[in-house]
Amino acid sequence: MNHFDFDDDLPTDDLTNSEKFREQMRNFLSDLANQNVSTVPSSEQLERFVADCFVQQSFTDALKIAKYWVGIAPFNVDAWHKLSLVQSSLGNHRDALLSIEKALSLSPNDIDVSINKAVIHDKCGNITIAIDTLVEVLDRYPTNEDALMTMALIFTRNKRFTEAISILEKLTTSVSYRRDAHYELGYCYDSIREFKKALFSYQFCLDLDPFDYNVWYNIGVVYLHKQQYYRSIEAFENSLSLDPSLTSAYVNLGNSYSQLGRLCKAVEYYKQAITLDATDFSLYHNLASTLETRGDFLEAIDWYSKAIEQNPKHHESYFGRATCYDALEQFEKALSDYEISILLFPKCSEYWYAKASVHYNLKNLSKSLESYKNALRYNANDSECWLDYAIACYETDDFVSTKLALHHVIAIDPSNVDAYYLLGKVLTILSEYEDAVQSLFCSFQLDKSKETLFSNEFKELLFGIDATQFIIELRKLDEELVLLLQ
After folding, report:
1. How buried is 308 (Cβ within 10 angstroms: 0-12 exposed, 13-18 middle, 19+ buried)?
2. Which of 86, 258, 289, 456 is 20 to 30 A (C-alpha) from 223?
């Protein structure tokens, strides 16, 4: 979701946009590079140079100018302040903190510098220091809206939505911040699933500017979260009509159509997103996943492979490609990709489970059992995995382990008919006839078709052994079941 950014408080006006000004700045940068600055610009002009670099996102040039500025004016608060903002924009937060502390040492009561100090600390992950810095500002100036808005944004960025909301609601009466407050409230309310309030806040923004593509996009996100997909589609289309280059809108149109089961439309929009941003591996992955759902496994494999080319450590794409190979019964290729998925994310139960299933299909029962155990180590509440593990144990004649695994299945899913039926077979083999008959009877109650299976399988199972006790226990429950064995 698009997000309101901190105001770096850098001045721009018509002078900044003029070609004459740009030419002066290019000449100055050239002189800097040649270490031949003959005419020293004023502090106001240097500040405007830095501001224009921000507008152009030429942060490296901004850094050169800001460093020159503090070099010729080491006691200028604005110089150190702007240097800190440039350093922070380049991700050099530690240097930014040193610069902003220098600015504060020159002007301890400067509100703007204190606020940006909080912003930089937040970017460094020093949330407590950031909030404490803003509290100090608000202790002196309790109604300072810049400080309040910055605090709300820090709370939002750190997912402390309730605290953010309490501040933002107050700022909705602010002339300067009411639009931004509502915009952020929309994001916060959406994040805590209070969708009606989120839509109210975004509608307020639309009433001020019905052509704001970001607001239309965020409304689409809310409807997507509400699972109202036709409305999300309408909002995303409105967003794209205002900004056809908004890649994320194409992606979420794909997501919306995918949820509606209109997979051809979803594929179309994912491909449009890729034409706008061919470097985003997640776009390739989403497209491949949709193609896989549609059953186009070969094409899905191609797109998963492209996602992997963009990000060789994306374990989800290896897993997706593996499931396609699995569906095509190319088990060796599937196994290779499952193993890479596990190497990249070893604690994923789903990956181990899939690997176990492939080993089972390849008749590698010992390796299959090992993988099932790893899957269950990371998710002991997967009844289907326990059942498949039990079947593999049964096929290796490890009936005690089969029995224990089936008890796990039934504890998790008391209505699992296959678990009761197989447990009946295992208990019969282990001569635990009373419990065997009880378990079989449960399977018959859940699924009458198991009686036919019973009549076919148990004649062979009981052949060659003394089945007297089994028949006695069976007769106690249902005489007709005994007839099935005759």
Report:
1. buried
2. 289
